[in-house]
Amino acid sequence: MGKHFMRQDGTFAGTFVDGEPKDKSLIEVPVAPPDGRMVWDLGAWRQNPNAKTEFALTPEMNGLVKFLADRFAITPEQIASAIKENAK
Predict the structure, then answer these.
(1) Backbone angles phi and psi of 72, in degrees to 5
(2) Which of 62, 81, 84, 87 has the fewest CB atoms within 10 Å, counting from its CB?
(3) At 35, phi and psi to the nearest 5?
(4) Is the pTM higher than 0.90?
């Protein structure tokens, strides 16, 4: 079994099967995240609110998504979900 490590900012650094990581600032955590973009917070992996989400949209539409996210304090993921839901 490997050992799982995070960086000081809570982002996942990796799993090491043989030996310890060279970077001694890494912190061991009990489990790896189900999604490598997650962050360690209060003893559990959580969605990273700062994770960048790529959309298959034009640059103008990406700008609109970012504007709406900032303006209405929602995440780009919520906007993408709404777009997908309304496209059905």
Answers:
(1) -110, 10
(2) 87
(3) -135, 125
(4) no
